[in-house]
Design goal:
single chain; alpha/beta; TIM Barrel; eight-stranded parallel beta barrel; 8 strands; 46% helix
Length: 234
């Protein structure tokens, strides 16, 4: 794999509270990563304008809008319609409501905005799934929801590295975006189902989401370069 291809697969989670902090970090990472993930903290604090500013100042960096939307199909259509004009490459929605819910999102998104179906959060293990009332294991839930995403025409799914083998076989045509990525020796933090970058690529990940190991590093660009090199070595 070339360095350029490896770089395009790395998504950095910009979990900061202000647009100024996000834009500063984006400036340090441009040319070192392919995409930035804007999540709930930043989006709620700054609104859609932060996405527009990011696209204007750093057009080489694609945007993954990680809002994990979850509502009735009609409300989801409205939210996706609003997001479509922001210039993001991907947006996340929860897969738990089934095919009709996902299909409404896909139809509203059109060709420019890719719908990623969140299967099971990487902070949830089997005990957490039982507490939420699920009788299936996280692995079985992920596979079932990935198949719903395929049937609905989603661009891809979000799953942990531990389910990648099953998901890659179940939905080989979809993007497989994997959060909870931690380089060897990095702190796990609040994640329960984690994997190293190289292992995730070997198991079939199309994109990796890395946050604190890059954003909290003394030199975020160098930390990103090290992960890109690990991806490229696979």
């Amino acid at each position: 794999m070339t360095t350029e291809d490896a770089r395009s697969r790395l998504i950095v989670a910009i979990d900061v509270p202000t647009a100024d902090a996000a834009l500063s970090l984006a400036g340090r990472l441009e040319g070192h990563v392919g995409m930035l993930k804007i999540g709930l903290q930043l989006f709620v604090a700054e609104g859609p304008s932060v996405v527009l500013k990011m696209r204007e100042r750093h057009p080489q960096l694609e945007i993954f809008l990680d809002l994990k939307l979850h509502d009735i199909p009609n409300t989801m259509r409205g939210a996706i319609a609003s997001a479509r004009s922001l210039g993001a490459r991907f947006i996340t929605v929860h897969a738990g409501s089934g095919v009709a819910h996902l299909q409404a999102c896909v139809e509203e998104a059109g060709d420019d905005l890719g719908i990623l179906a969140v299967t099971v959060l990487t902070s949830q293990d089997e005990a957490a799934c039982r507490e939420a009332g699920h009788t299936r294991t996280p692995q079985a839930l992920v596979e079932m929801r990935a198949d719903c995403a395929r049937m609905a025409g989603c661009a891809g799914v979000v799953c942990s590295g531990q389910e990648l083998t099953r998901v890659s076989k179940a939905v080989p045509s979809l993007f497989r975006v994997v959060p909870g990525i931690r380089p060897a020796g990095a702190a796990v933090g609040d994640q329960k189902r984690v994997m190293t970058p190289a292992d995730a690529i070997r198991e079939g990940a199309s994109h990796l989401v890395v946050g604190r190991p890059i954003t909290k590093a003394d030199d975020p660009a160098s930390a990103a370069d090290a992960i890109v090199a690990e991806i490229a070595s696979v």
